[in-house]
User: What shape does this take?
Amino acid sequence: MVFISALIIFILIILASAVKIAREYERGVVFRLGRLILPPKGPGIFLIIPVVDRMIKISLRTVVMDVPMILNTANTNYKDDFMSWGADAYVVKSDDLEELKAKVREILGELES
Assistant: This one.
């Protein structure tokens, strides 16, 4: 009797781990023994083989990030250009490119994390 109840509990755990749910804005990419199974699953409820399959959820939502404008100029007439006055808060002005490269690395580092 104990063996049968343990077997039933084991089967329920396996079945519970086989059920996967992908939301409306997600797709489930399934790998069976490391190989891609096409097409991607979802949205909705679907089953995978628990020990053999591995599922990764992929979000289809658009990610929007604010990236400041970077302007590098060695032009001494920069301050005479009336149209560029409003952009002073976003501008890196230098005739040395190291400052510009550092700013680009900083922005790319923020985007990766």
Remarks:
- The two ends are 54 Å apart (CA to CA).
- Strands lie at 19-22, 26-32, 35-41, 44-47, 53-59.
- The CA atoms of residues 77 and 84 lie 11 Å apart.
